[in-house]
Write a sequence for this structure.
């Protein structure tokens, strides 16, 4: 998904600072974006090292102030078939990758952009954040936390020239997404999602939900009686 967004943004007179943990995939993304006319810089680091990530984003922003930052990192996982709940270590890792890392870096960029009086911040959440998924408690919980943080950050930066856009997509046809078992209704192509994300950021939209039926599912989760909702969520668990 990060590669698709970078390619959508790539073009002449554009500087893209690309981050990623996998150096080979990062270089491939940089090559694709350079072919589209963009100037690219890469940085390979593990975003679970929060202190190093903060130092890196401060250095990159000082060198060339960012107009837009897109935090697309994330890890999805589900409970192992023989576990009743997810392992504590997995919960910790997803909390770092899905919430602590992007929220911390977004706060740092919010401060820098507010001081300049302009900027756009995009946080990639998930439609899973709308629902209490018993087989993916850490994923659903961390994405729900990121959604609330994004909305609060948006309000905090209102009036300072900085927009914050939360994106809550459903299933995307990526390599990581294909590894998740179970059905994937309304599967979306990464380039289509990337185009919608960039347009929403440019418009300063607060929240983009993709595809639109997930808006209906969000309201259904809120409006159903708890007993009915619980029964429905429990029925969604993938087969062991």
């Amino acid at each position: 998904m990060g590669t698709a967004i970078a390619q959508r943004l790539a073009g002449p007179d554009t500087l893209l600072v690309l981050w990623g943990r996998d150096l080979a995939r990062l270089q491939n993304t940089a090559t694709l974006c350079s072919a589209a006319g963009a100037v690219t810089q890469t940085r390979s680091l593990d975003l679970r090292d929060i202190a190093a990530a903060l130092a890196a984003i401060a250095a990159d922003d000082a060198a060339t102030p960012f107009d837009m930052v897109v935090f697309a990192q994330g890890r999805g996982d589900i409970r192992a078939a023989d576990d009743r709940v997810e392992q504590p270590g997995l919960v910790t890792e997803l909390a770092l990758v899905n919430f602590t890392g992007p929220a911390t870096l977004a706060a740092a960029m919010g401060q820098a952009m507010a001081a300049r009086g302009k900027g756009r911040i995009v946080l990639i959440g998930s439609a899973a954040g709308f629902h209490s998924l018993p087989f993916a408690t850490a994923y659903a919980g961390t994405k729900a936390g990121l959604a609330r943080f994004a909305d609060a950050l948006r309000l905090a930066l209102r009036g300072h020239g900085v927009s914050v856009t939360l994106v809550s997509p459903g299933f995307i046809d990526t390599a990581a997404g294909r590894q998740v078992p179970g059905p994937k209704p309304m599967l979306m192509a990464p380039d289509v999602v990337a185009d919608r994300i960039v347009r929403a950021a440019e418009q300063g939209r607060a929240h983009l939900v993709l595809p639109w039926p997930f808006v209906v599912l969000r309201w259904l989760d809120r409006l159903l009686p708890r007993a009915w909702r619980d029964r429905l969520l429990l029925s969604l668990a993938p087969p062991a």
About this structure: Strands lie at 15-20, 39-44, 68-71, 119-124, 162-169, 207-210. The chain has a mean pLDDT of 92. The chain has one domain: 67-235. Residues 67-235 form a domain with the Rossmann fold fold (CATH 3.40.50.720).
